[in-house]
Design a protein that fits this description.
Low-confidence stretches: none
Largest sheet: 2 strands, antiparallel
Oligomer: single chain
């Protein structure tokens, strides 16, 4: 969109590039997406036992959001 052009760079809010943004460009679906992600994790936890593929400790990659370096592989075992 035009609001990200270099000519408009001075008028951009500091949170314009952050997912779900902020201010007047706040994402309308942000609350739904957050609620949906919690429900998905809860459903996976109810139906599956999550086990790491490796016993090696996870390496964290701090940034704008906290994530695992090189991902984190897991097995999903159905609960009985």
């Amino acid at each position: 969109p035009e609001r990200f052009l270099p000519s408009n760079n001075k008028s951009l809010d500091k949170s314009a590039y952050i997912p779900f943004a902020g201010g007047r460009h706040l994402c309308l679906g942000m609350h739904f997406a957050m609620m949906e992600s919690v429900m998905i994790v809860a459903l996976i936890g109810q139906r599956f036992r999550v086990r790491p593929v490796s016993d090696e400790p996870a390496k964290i990659d701090p940034g704008l959001s906290l994530r695992m370096k090189n991902g984190y592989l897991v097995y999903l075992e159905p609960r009985s």
